């Protein structure tokens, strides 16, 4: 079946069916679900990983953009909706379970703070100090409207607040 998809693309007829979109997407993402049974996808974008709910508008836009960049044609809304449902099912029933965090997470004696910037950087804080890291062992999800934090500079110290 994969050969048929490649042959169709070579003939100038991209497969923009839901099945074709799922095939194209699964080459570019990692699916998983949360303990609460929500479907998520991690996508490599440039030099970092981004995490999105499969049933979100931004993931739908990513699917459409992926097809457009691959084939120069936009898929139908029906094909995107069907592909999203198939991917969500795969995430829920055939993929691993992972916890997803918003802004702060703990892992292996470190605390990670998502800076929510365009590079998807985080601050890793340990007993020895802190550093800005491009990748984390945890998955962060950003709800709509989440604002970026200022990137800390060398010499900055993290201290508990004394006053409110």
Report on the architecture of this protein.
The chain is 31% helix and 25% strand. It has 164 residues and is α+β, with helices and mostly antiparallel strands. The protein has 2 domains: 2-94, no CATH class; 100-140, no CATH class. α2 (18-26) packs across α4 (77-94).
- Given the helix and strand composition, which structural class is it? alpha+beta
Please give the share of residues in helix.
25-40%
Q: Outline the biggest β-sheet.
A: 4 strands, antiparallel
The number of helical elements comes to 4
How do the helices and strands follow one another from N- to C-terminus? HHEEEHHEEEEEE
- The dominant shape is elongated
Query: Which residues form runs of ≥5 with pLDDT under 50?
Result: 1-9
Secondary structure layout:
Elements: H1 2-10, H2 18-26, E1 29-33, E2 39-45, E3 48-53, H3 57-71, H4 77-94, E4 100-101, E5 104-107, E6 110-114, E7 122-126, E8 129-133, E9 139-140
Parallel strand pairs: 4-9
Antiparallel strand pairs: 1-2, 2-3, 5-6, 6-7, 7-8
């Amino acid at each position: 079946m994969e050969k048929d998809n490649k042959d169709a693309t070579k003939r100038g007829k991209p497969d923009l069916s839901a099945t074709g979109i799922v095939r194209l997407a699964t080459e570019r993402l990692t699916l998983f679900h949360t303990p609460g049974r929500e479907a998520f996808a991690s996508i490599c974008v440039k030099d970092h990983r981004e995490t999105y709910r499969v049933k979100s508008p931004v993931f739908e836009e990513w699917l459409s953009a992926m097809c457009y960049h691959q084939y120069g044609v936009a898929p139908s809304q029906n094909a995107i909706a069907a592909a999203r449902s198939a991917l969500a099912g795969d995430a829920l029933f055939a993929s691993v379970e992972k916890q997803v965090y918003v802004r702060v997470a703990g892992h292996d004696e470190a605390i990670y703070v998502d800076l929510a910037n365009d590079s998807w950087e985080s601050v890793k804080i340990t007993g020895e100090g802190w550093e800005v890291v491009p990748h984390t062992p945890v998955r962060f999800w950003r709800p709509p409207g989440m604002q970026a934090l200022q990137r800390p500079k060398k010499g900055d110290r993290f201290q508990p607040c004394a006053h409110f």
